[in-house]
Specification:
Strand content: 15-25%
Radius of gyration: 19 Å
Helix content: 25-40%
Number of domains: 2
Strand order of the largest sheet: 3-2-1-4-9-6-12
Largest sheet: 7 strands, mixed
CATH superfamily of the largest domain: Spore Coat Polysaccharide Biosynthesis Protein SpsA, Chain A
CATH topology of the largest domain: Spore Coat Polysaccharide Biosynthesis Protein SpsA, Chain A
Length: 251
Amino acid sequence: MTRLTAIVLTYNEAEHIKDCLQTLDFAYTRIVYDSGSTDNTVDIARQYGARVMRHDFENFAAQRNAALKAVEKETDWVLFVDADERVTPELAEEIRRVLINPRAVGYRIPRYNYLFGKLTRGAGWYPDYQTRLLKVGRSRYDPQRQVHELVLLDGEEGTLENHFIHYNYSTVEQFVAKQQKYVQYDAQIMYEQGIQPKPQNYILQPLRHFYCRFVDLKGYADGWHGFKLSAMMAWYELRKYLLLRGMWAKH
């Protein structure tokens, strides 16, 4: 029988870990791969039958690679699930069915994102494919992509039909804090690639970003919610170029 291990990376996820683990009962093993939580994440995980492993956090790619390495001799497949995600019964059944006769070494899974409590279908948040069902020994994460991880597969990639449910950002404050980290990282990558901002970038890039999300990616279908998200992402596109300008000014 094919062995499937569900792995949840955690750091202070007491709010989510119980509900997440309860959707993973179909897996052969459930592991909470914790990076030093200071709340009761670990206690809750053990209470609900998960095995806990600890590993110091460096970056997301390194953490996922370390988790794959830790279970490589005891399982055939790994399903990575974030603590704020839920596996629906339909997705669980599809995973069981696919693993009877897998035709790929990795599978991407579409994701429904709830932002500020609202299911968001436009502005780039759907289908939001995540390559998370991985054949052990045939998959790894690109160490150069420390954020927005990139899976490298030694073989074909498949696509599942059923969805993760992702309770993404419950408040605007959470969204702002995360985007600030992302744009800092993206600006640093551009700087390391030798990209210097041009005067028109401060106007044209945010406008293009807004148009792409609100029009091309149908943010308009989510009404005011989609407009607000598209405008916020355009603002962070501007922030990225301003940060990049500051890096070059210190050069």
